[in-house]
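Tokens in:
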């Protein structure tokens, strides 16, 4: 039901995706694969994969070469995500999770206004290298673009929540 109508037309009603993640801070690899490495088998999507590499650094997003070694042969588009200013899909919006309005009781951090990355400390940047492959003629570009948009929305919402939920995990 969450897929667009053009995707529902070609995807069976019942399917699954297996996700495996390797977390060893400050580096994480998450891969969702179908039909590869015995991760799972989806007969209708034999050539589909999502691979996300994450590196965390104590900076404001200023490391332009963090993935140069891993992505040297890939065509890349850099996309900055601003948890305070970027719009999220309306159905996911919660004022209590909006960094423009949230202020932490435990840390005093919050109410991120325009230019917050230049004025707030500390800041940790989460760099993501997202690779999507869908090797099906006629659908490849559309599906890959759709998945990139969905992943971007998930990352934006998740990082907004991590900021707004700081009082639930800080000091624990």
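Residues out:
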């Amino acid at each position: 039901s969450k897929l667009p109508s053009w995707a529902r037309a070609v995807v069976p009603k019942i399917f699954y995706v297996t996700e495996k993640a390797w977390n060893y801070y400050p580096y994480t690899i998450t891969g969702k694969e179908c039909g590869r490495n015995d991760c799972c088998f989806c007969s209708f999507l034999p050539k589909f994969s999502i691979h996300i590499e994450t590196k965390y650094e104590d900076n404001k997003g200023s490391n332009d070469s963090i993935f140069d070694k891993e992505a040297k042969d890939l065509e890349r588009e850099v996309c900055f995500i601003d948890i305070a200013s970027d719009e999220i899909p309306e159905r996911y919006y919660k004022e209590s999770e909006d960094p423009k309005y949230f202020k932490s009781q435990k840390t005093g951090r919050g109410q991120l206004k325009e230019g917050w990355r230049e004025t707030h400390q500390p800041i940790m940047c989460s760099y993501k290298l997202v690779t999507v492959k869908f090797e099906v003629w006629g659908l490849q570009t559309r599906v890959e673009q759709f998945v990139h948009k969905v992943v971007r929305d998930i990352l934006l919402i998740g990082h907004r929540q991590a900021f707004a939920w700081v009082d639930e995990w800080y000091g624990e």
